[in-house]
Amino acid sequence: MAQDRVALYLQDAHDLREGMKLAQYAEKNNFEAVWQAESRLVRDAIVPMAAFAAVTERIKVGSGVINNWTRNIGLLAATFLTLDDLAPDRIICGIGAWWDPLAANVGIERRKPMLAMRETIEVMRKLLNMENVTYEGEFHKVKGIELDVVHGRREPRHVPIMIGATGPKMMEMTGAIADGAVLNYCVPPEYNEAALNQLKKGAESAGRTLDDIDRPQLVVCSVDNDKAKALDGARWLLTQYIAQQPHITKASNTPQETVQQIQSILGWPATKEQIKEAMKLVPDELVQHITASGTPEEVKAKVRQYVANGCTCPILYPLGDPYLMIEVFSDGYGSN
Fold it and tell me: How does pLDDT run across 254-276, given as a tens digit for each residue?
């Protein structure tokens, strides 16, 4: 029987050197990949990816996800060429359309996000294929550029490009042009049904099938032998997301009254005291509905639900003891 695919997701909850140790521990425990987030203005993805790649031998290293607005296309391709030099054939480019108000607050106008993403992927692919590129798009205008490798490998680089899509149109386009979709977290397993329909539609429009589209999925995973402790670990995160990210309340059917109560308690950025107070409003049922939280057996069962609903590789975001989570999933997520 083939090894269950499973990956580790890191944001900024761990010291960077601790993240390096976790990447090594995940590799030792048969994890397929380690993905580094880049969302809030806290930690870029590229430096940690290089650190993880440098201290491991086999595990893949992905960006989960960078945005397509803040690095010009030449630099973006050169960055992934450099990472591939460090860890040949182990690098994955996860890329997304970013979000407001953060983008607007740093001066980025996210207009025509689908066209911008399509152009980014078209030009980046050509550059990583070691082509000389001239391209006259709306967002990318390049003239006779190529990756100028003088000292090193000149052959095309194999860097899968995965789009972190959320909206149905971006999901459909992902099915048509990307190697895969990084599916979102803090959603119930049944969220995947609509996402897969859109991916399939896009894939078929490009003469492909759904099986050609990899579908790794971020999954919040809070595991502890003490179930109450595990649920509180996830509740801490969800409380903040419910207040700040409307797509999560929509996907999880959180009552609007609950959302408003939580928002009235939490400031921006929220203090630990505010989160602790607002956590009381997030019921166990919601935590268990949109995360994999509880005892080792319960989290494995929940992860199996995401896989049954089309996720090809769970990317587990550890809340609580990350080493315990890695050990729990070292043999995959099949029945014990």
Answer: 788 888 899 899 877 788 999 99
